[in-house]
Amino acid sequence: MSSERLDKIISSSGKYTRSESSKMIRSGAVRVNGEEVRNPAFKADGNSDKITVNSRKFVYKKYIYIMMNKPSGVVSASDSPSDVTVVDLIEGELKRPGLFPAGRLDKDTTGFVLITDDGDFAHRILSPKRHVSKTYRVTLKEDITEDEAEMIRTGLMLNGEKLLPAKVKKLDGEHVYEVVLKEGRYHQIKRMFARFSNEVTALERTAMGNLELDSSLKCGEYREMTAEEIMKVEMKT
Ligand code: URA
Question: Which tens digit of pLDDT belongs to each residue from 207-223?
């Protein structure tokens, strides 16, 4: 881990803005390895230096990773002039600047949205080259035929483009299926089933990579992810 300005480290907690952090540092509230540091530009290592704010241990997290069970009617974006976004729902300790959803779900889709401020991580899990899977519970108007399931498994043609092979299997429940995609095209699931003149009546993302949505999270609830969970997203399924 490289060194960063002390005011940047303190403001990364999301509790204080950059200028509040500078003010606190100037006032003598911040110590690095026991020494009072009054210079906001002082370079420290947030992971290895012992930092205290008002004599309390400061826990530095460069990035944050949040699992949310997205409700319907909320858009997966950082800001919107007209809609409530998944980032608007984050409050308290986990709120910080720069949060965005890693990948998009439609406004009416529910389920697992990963919200982070780590652009490299988001890029890795969304890159089609990495093939990080996204699992959906899909409710259809009608059951699909075995031929249609086979077309999905071998790679469906959609508007002249061949999709990557996807997994599809029947789940308990009327017209309910699990679909696992290794790419994320615009309205992909809805368009795949529309291709068979079928219709998606409910869509929920249940897993990203090897990590399932925490079933104890109700719609609209979220929590910080553990280090092990973050790794599981990138693990091959
Ligand atoms: N496919 C869709 O059609 N919509 C989503 O929200 C996700 C995948």
Answer: 999 999 999 999 999 99
- At 147 the pLDDT is 97
- Please report where in the chains the tokens 């600047």 appear, as a residue: 97
26: tokens are 């100037």
The CA-atom distances, in angstroms, between 171 and each of 137, 178, 234 are 8, 6, 25
Query: Which pTM does this prediction carry?
Result: 0.84
Best substitution site from 105, 113, 206 to test ligand 1's pocket, by max atoms within 8 Å of Cβ? 105
Ligand 1 closest atom vs CA 104: 6
Cβ(8)–Cβ(51) under 8 Å? Answer: no
Chain segment 64-83, per-residue pLDDT in tens: 999 999 999 999 999 999 99
Could you tell me the CA-to-CA distances from 82 to 38, 58, 85, 100, 227 in Å, in that order?
43, 37, 9, 17, 34
Instruction: Provide the pLDDT for residue 60.
Output: 82
Q: What tens digit of pLDDT does each residue of 80-99 get?
A: 999 999 999 999 878 888 89
Instruction: Give 3-state DSSP helix, strand, coil % of the chain, rounded to 5.
Output: 20, 30, 50
Q: Is the CB of 135 under 6 A from ligand 1?
A: no
What's the CA-to-centroid distance between 110 and ligand 1, angstroms?
10
For ligand 1, whether the C-beta of 187 sits within 6 Å is: yes
Contact 76, 104 (CB under 8 A): yes
C-beta 105 within 6 A of ligand 1: yes
Answer yes or no: is the C-beta of 203 below 6 A from any ligand 1 atom: yes
* 106 part of the active site: yes
